[in-house]
Q: What sequence folds into this?
């Protein structure tokens, strides 16, 4: 997919948002396995990357050397990619029905045996380093692909993230983009009630990154940030702080820590489906 | 015994350096451990040298990203740090994706004498050999360091190379590389009893052998160059002349060389009388040098000689 040939139609992206939320909800509900709220907080970022034409990829040639690399380092939310990858033909849509089943290829946490998945993730704090390995290799090989790494805010507790942040800035990996999904929650509570992360954007800045903070559910803010990411040649890596709502789109799950891996009962499922009939994304 | 003129790390890295000149896909990363050879590499090889900061975890993750792009990557640091500090990175980012990576750990056992437990690698074998698909090599002299280094770029795989910090005496003549094929090689033929060990401890085993010969005990000495995987057929044939086996290691007994060999013997139905000698469960914060640490740990030449003599007479 060529970046320049895609018309960034916000209405279309909003429709994809609603579609992805519905698909992901049913994917998880079929087996009652998965993480809906963590996936929803980064849904617009993923939709924009794939359907906004920012990510260069070829589902017919998933290992093309010049493809952009996308790593969902918050591996518990990588299942949000599964409907998208099926939609682009990386594998059959039937695989979505076989999520976690013995005859399926899609698992709770992703790994690179799945077409379209670049790296195993699920243990936090690895994806950004792996993404920087890609970035360093791209620079030495004279290739122009980029690494996009979706990192969770809770993941920023891992020291390895900051080891990598130093590395990326020292080696001027401006082909690496960290998208920090700042939904404000880890499993037990709000991050600021566990161990404080704020001021988070300033921390990335202090580590030598360019930063931009956006509303992670507003395409009007996401698209300019990604425009900047794909044009970046500043010599500094870019961190997009994507302020988001965990569980965005299902009101009773929104910003409630206990819904991290809790499954709704029948009544709650019906209510969630009803809410998903209305698109929660405004612009 | 003749000592080599170059440190194991320099011998190893000079081999990599020569290969990297002709292969731009070879990269050496360090977490701030240096060496003369690494200084030469850094000066000449530009972006093929990567200082990762004192950040072993990031070093492994970046190496994974490079390996996913087809690069032949070496990570180099002190043995305790490049194994335990980043163990989960090696498991997740390298082993679980089946990626090739050469992990060079310098200073195994008590190599960093007088440094204390932070710098001792006395549990590296037990941890690293638990990883699926890893190969573990402990080169014991110049020839085996050279051959191990050549293997890493000829056939890239996930390997942990255990290097001693010190100069090592010669075990193998140039061109003698049976240890490469078999992984286990008898370097001294003995009678009835053999001592299986690796790396630095081979010279100690030979010292024990000299002592015992005056008692009429003639132990064979067997180099366990490749601790994982162990070839059961080779093990059976190497041990065929012996009924008693002593394993000797500068490592905790839990899960170390002796443990690995005993498991391999059991799994292959090889029945011998076995005695394991290694470090009992204790961390020593003591000065006095490597030999003194060996005395404390019960792996010095005197103690081992006595233990082997008693075992031989059982």
A:
């Amino acid at each position: 997919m060529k970046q320049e040939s895609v018309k960034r139609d916000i209405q279309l992206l909003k429709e994809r948002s609603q579609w992805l939320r519905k698909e992901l909800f049913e994917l998880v509900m079929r087996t009652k396995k998965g993480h809906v709220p963590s996936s929803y907080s980064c849904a617009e970022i993923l939709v924009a990357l794939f359907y906004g034409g920012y990510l260069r990829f070829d589902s017919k040639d998933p290992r093309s050397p010049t493809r952009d690399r996308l790593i969902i380092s918050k591996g518990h939310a990588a299942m949000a990619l599964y409907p998208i990858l099926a939609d682009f033909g990386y594998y059959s849509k039937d695989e979505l029905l076989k999520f976690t089943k013995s005859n399926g290829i899609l698992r709770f946490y992703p790994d690179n045996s799945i077409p379209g998945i670049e790296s195993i993730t699920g243990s936090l704090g690895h994806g950004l380093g792996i993404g920087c390995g890609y970035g360093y290799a791209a620079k030495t090989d004279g290739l122009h692909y980029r690494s996009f790494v979706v990192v969770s805010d809770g993941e920023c507790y891992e020291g390895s993230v900051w080891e990598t942040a130093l590395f990326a800035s020292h080696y001027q990996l401006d082909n690496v983009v960290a998208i920090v999904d700042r939904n404000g929650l880890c499993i037990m509570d709000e991050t600021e009630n566990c161990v404080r992360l704020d001021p988070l954007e300033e921390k990335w800045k202090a580590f030598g990154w360019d930063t931009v903070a956006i509303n992670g559910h507003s395409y009007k803010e996401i698209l300019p940030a990604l425009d900047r990411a794909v044009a970046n040649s500043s010599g500094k890596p870019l961190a997009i702080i994507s302020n988001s709502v965990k569980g965005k789109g299902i009101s009773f799950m929104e910003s409630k820590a206990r819904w991290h891996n809790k499954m709704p009962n029948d009544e709650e499922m019906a209510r969630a489906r009803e809410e998903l009939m209305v698109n929660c994304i405004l612009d | 015994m003749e000592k080599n003129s170059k440190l194991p790390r320099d011998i190893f890295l000079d081999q990599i350096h020569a290969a990297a000149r002709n292969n731009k896909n070879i990269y050496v990363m360090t977490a701030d451990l240096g060496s003369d050879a690494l200084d030469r590499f850094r000066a000449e090889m530009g972006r093929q040298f990567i200082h990762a900061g004192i950040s072993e975890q990031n070093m492994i993750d970046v190496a994974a990203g490079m390996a996913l792009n087809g690069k032949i990557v070496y990570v180099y640091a002190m043995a305790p740090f490049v194994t335990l500090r980043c163990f989960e990175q090696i498991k997740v980012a390298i082993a679980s994706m089946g990626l090739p990576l050469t992990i060079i750990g310098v200073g195994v056992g008590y190599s960093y004498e007088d440094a204390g437990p932070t710098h001792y690698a006395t549990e590296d074998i037990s941890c690293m050999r638990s990883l699926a698909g890893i190969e573990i090599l402990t080169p014991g002299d110049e020839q085996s360091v050279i051959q191990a280094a050549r293997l890493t770029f000829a056939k890239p795989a996930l390997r942990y190379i255990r290097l001693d910090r010190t100069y090592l005496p010669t075990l193998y003549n140039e061109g003698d590389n049976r240890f490469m094929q078999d992984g286990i090689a008898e370097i001294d033929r003995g009678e009835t009893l053999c001592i299986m060990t690796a790396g630095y401890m081979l010279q100690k085993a030979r010292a024990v052998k000299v002592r015992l010969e005056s008692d009429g005990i003639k132990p064979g000495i067997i180099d366990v160059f490749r601790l994982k995987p162990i070839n059961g057929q080779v093990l059976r044939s190497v041990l065929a002349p012996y009924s008693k086996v002593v394993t000797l290691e500068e490592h905790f007994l839990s899960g170390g060389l002796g443990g690995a060999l005993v498991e391999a013997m059991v799994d292959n139905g090889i029945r011998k009388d076995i005695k394991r000698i290694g470090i009992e469960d204790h961390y020593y914060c003591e000065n006095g040098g490597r030999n003194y640490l060996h005395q404390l740990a019960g792996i010095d030449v005197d103690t081992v000689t006595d233990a082997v003599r008693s075992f031989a007479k059982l």
Q: What stands out?
A: Chain B touches chain A at residues 24, 47-48, 50, 52-53, 55, 57-58, 60-69, 71, 88-89, 92-93, 96-97 (CB under 8 Å).
